[in-house]
Structures are given as C-alpha cells and as structure tokens.
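Something for you to look into today, if you have time. Could you write out one complete protein record for me, on any chain you like? The space below this message is yours for that.
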Amino acid sequence: MTDNVPYRLSAVGIGGYRSLRQIQFPVDQLSVFVGANGVGKTNLYRALLLVQAAAAGRLALELAGEGGMASAMSAAKRPPKGQPLISFRTDFETEGGTTYSYEVAAGFASYTAGGVRQRIGAAFLDEPQIKAETLSIDVGRRKIKLLDRQGPSASMRNMDGIREVMDDRLLPSETALGSFEDPSRFPDLYWLRRTLLDWRFYHNFRTDQASPLRQSCLAVTSPTLASDGANLAAVFATLVHIREDTAALDQAIDDAFPGAQLVVPEPDRTASFGLVFPEYPQRVFDVGELSDGTLRYLALAGALLSYRLPSFVALNEPETSLHPSLLEPLARLIIDASKRSQIWLVTHSEQLAEAIASQSDAKPRTVIKRNGETWIEGLKITGMFEDEDAEA
C-alpha cells in the first residue's frame, strides 16, 4: 500500500520527443532505468514531467522553454504526410482494477506553403500548439472517452454519462485537463489531474552556498519535500516535532554516516538542522558547513522519508556527487520508499542499480541507443519486456 494511490501509473507511451521516436512499456512499483551518458535516459524522465505539465496547463510553456517544437521534436524520420507531433500517453490503474488512459499531442503552430509560413489557429508562429487530448476508461472490450479534445474544441462525459461540450474554445497553448476543475460533475478527470499534480520530480539538488538547501527555511509543517529541496529543514522538523517518529530517518543517517546524529532544534520562526559526527561529539555542523555529498544525501533522505510521500516520485541521477559508500544506503532508502510510493529512478550508476536489484524484486532496465533512437534492452515492439512475456 502506498500513502495515497488515486491512480497508479501502469504504462507509458512516448512518440516524437527528442530521441524517443516511438516507445511504450509497462511501469512497475519500482522502475529502475540505467544507462550510459547520452543514451536518452533524461528524456524518459522529462517526458513524465511534461505529462504533469499538461495537467497543470503548462505543457506548451514547458516545451517552449526547452527550445520550442523544433528542439523538442524527435530527430527521427518525420511522417511523409501531415504535421509531425509529440505525443505522451500514460495508463493508470485503480485499486479496483479500473484502467484509464490519458494522451496528449502537441505540434507546430505554423506550416510552410509556397515558401510562406502560415499560422494555424490563434497562436504565435513558433509556439507549441496542443493538437489533441483524450482520457479514456476501459470498460471490458471497449474504451469510452471521458475527454475528447481536437484542436480548440473539447467535450467531456459527466458522471451521468452525458457528453458535454466545453463552452469556451481552448487556446492552442491550453490543455483541456488543465483548464477546468469540477469534481462533482467530472470526478474521473478531477482525480486524474489531482494525481498528476501530486507527482514529485527530484533532479540534481543544488548544493552551492546560494542553493535553496542551504538557505533559511520558514517553520511551516511540511509533509512533502519541495522539488528544489527548499523546505528540507521544515520536512525534518515535521518528522521530529510533529510526527514524533524518527526511527527510519535515524536509521538512514546511521546507515550512511555511522555514529552521526541529525540535530533538529524546536523551530521558532525558521527551521534548521545540523549533524553531529562521532569524531566531534560536542560540535554541531550546521547546513552551511556540510559537504556537497552529505547535504545531497540528506536531501534525498528528506524526499524519500517525508511524512507524506506523493503517489509517484521520479529521481533523475540521484547518485550525482555522492561518495560510492553512500550508494548502498541510498538503494535501501529507495526500496523502502517504494513500499509507500511508486518510484521511477533514472541513473547511470550500475552500482546503485545492482544494489537495488540485490535487495528487492525490481528489475533494472538498461537504456540504449538503437539506430540513433532511445530504446530499452529486452523491450519488444508490442510494448512488453521479454522476461515478463516469458513469465506470462
């Protein structure tokens, strides 16, 4: 059981995004992707972040921030007819066994005809444009569309099964999922959106002196670590002084730094923390004095031991700047967190992947480049892994 599982991610499909020409594969409770630099691991991570951006209504903005459609579009062969698209599909399952599928596609807001660029709809010439969006529910042998958006028009099925057309036409930069919130009439859409917005992505915590991890933190009860780690001290204070249960946190500290103790004073206006090392039992090293690797490990501990874990946590190369001796403790942190939340790990550390595999049922998947495209070893064109097909 995880802390909160409205919808559990069960499969992912990505098309036309950077080095991911067309790929689909199942997702486990603990998914580990390992590979060399440059094979496209981060694109797998970014693809899910863009799905969350669609739920927040920021997909076009995020794609524009990546350099626009020309940059984000796959370098693979373009279709001979029609406009090229980037597409993301995520499948979900509920505890009751119901299956949902959300898909969103984006493309260019202009095309060239006779050497002249032509605008498509009410969009700037170079901005990404949302082309299509669907949410379907699997009801046996057929699928029913709960959300169907083509261009600026969208319709939704309410809780009585009646199709309603959205009154306002959507702008090309807007997603339908991110444009409304009505849990009473459209509960499925509401819970899917809420699930996606609850996801957390942790990538390369900054540890320089100006980083959020090293700045003062307001003392506000914080059940979940922010993506940049800015509320780390408040997360620790919440575990120590609100939850009053630090067994897992103390174990994680001792596992990584034998004999060390995390010190979290009772907060006043701000929260703080430090470490006492066995070599200096009377000395508290505050956050400004901790090494980059030590602070990054503490941030990962805060992310994975938070009072309330999100339903989905994505980690991108968390081993960066960590001493090799910290990889085994990090592996145990990740495995324990997967009992409370669905974990998606992208790493180039074979040592970390092997440590996880040796202590859990997780099967690390090797990410490779195949004919210039990102692929996963053992993945069949049907979207299943060979070992899982054999077991079935």
Notes: The CA atoms of residues 110 and 116 lie 10 Å apart.
